[in-house]
Every structure is written in C-alpha cells, then in structure tokens.
Amino acid sequence: VRLSIHASLISSDLYARLGMLHMSEFVCRRAVKQFASVASVEDLLMLYMKLLQVQVQLVALGPDVVPVPSSSAPATSSFTEIYSQLKQLAKQVRLSFPSDMPFALSQQLESVNLLIAARAAQASGDLSRALRLAHRLVELTTVGPSGKETHLSDAQIEARLLLAELLAHFDLSASVQLLQELAEICKKSDNQVMHCLCTFLQAQLTLQYAHHDEDASQNALRSIENTLLIARTTGLGLFETYVARFSTK
Description:
The protein has about 250 residues and is mainly α.
C-alpha cells in the first residue's frame, strides 16, 4: 500500500511538472479514494496535502478551471468562495488526524494553510496581507541556507513563485531578481515548465522597469520570444495560462 501511495505522489508530481495539473489532481483524488481505508495516517495525510496544493494551483489559474473540492458544495465562480471551501477542507483534514502528528507533517500542513490564506488574501485584493503570508510561507518551506538551494520541491517553487507574483505589485526589481534565481534553480533540477515560466516572467517584468534601457529591453524581448518558442514547440501544458494569470493580477 505504501509503495502504491508513494507511486501516486510521484506520478502527481510528474504531471504537475509537465503542466498537467488536472491529471495531477486526478491522480491524488484516485489515490485518496482507493487507499483511504487502508493507508497509514502519515501516508493519507501526505495524499491530502498534495491534493490541496494542486487544487490551490488550479484555483489560481481561474475559478472556472478547478472543480469545487467538496462534492456537496454548489458550483461557484468566485475566487474567495472557492478559497473558503479549500480552507474548510484543510481544517477538516487537520481535525481528522492525531494532534501529535510528526513535526515534518505538521509543518507541511501549515505551509498548505499559509498558501491557501495568501491566495485568498490576493483574491480579495488585500495584497499587503498576501505578501506578508507569502514571506512566511517561503521562510517555512526553506530548508538550509537561503539562496544556496540546488533543488526545490513543487511546494517550495509554488511559494517562491507566489512571492514573486506579489512582489511585482510593490518592488519590480526584487520580483525580477527572485524570478531569475528561481529560473536558475529550476533549470538545474530539469523542471522545464517552471524554468520557462520564470524566465518569461522575469523578461516581461524587466520590460516594465527597464524600458529606458534599450539593451535590457532588447534582451528581454529576445528572452520572451525564445521562451515562448520552447514552450509551444515542446507542448508545456499550462504554461501560457500561467503567464496570462501572472500578467493580469
């Protein structure tokens, strides 16, 4: 059972890295349904947390992209309502497990709650609160000296991408720098979807704050063209949807 659950988690991660978030969510849902009655507390909690993480990513792409997480809940097109449902689901997950769960699992669940809270604040227009929560999320998910990572988990990447997205409203240069660092790490770890996304967004933001610098602007335009070409010719799933979401928030 444990091997099957871990295989499902790996499969979900692979689909997510290919930009196929719907398939990533489907794998988690199927595993929860299949193993709920026989899995250990630790393994089942890992499945639920992965499912919540993917659902938050899907909601961020647009409320019409993700199915409502509770089958008994009515369909809705409101970001805030969907995030509220995800908060309730996370609360139910926490109450369903022992209070003395391992510290590592408790930290993971807290990071999921922070991610949901930050996205909810962003959706409601409270960008300052969202930024504070995003900073806390990055701190919570950072392992070892910051800035020296050579590999990041999907949860760590999502936390930093959220922070860069929110920083763009307050400090464009800081957002660009964070995206550049994230793109380099994703390239080293062969995460092509996120490498392309971060490279594209970095170039896009560079055009906004360095428009007076002709060389920087030309380099940014070339980077955008090259990244789009790579993404389209290799079929990187939800890449363009991510770009549209980042650009319009």
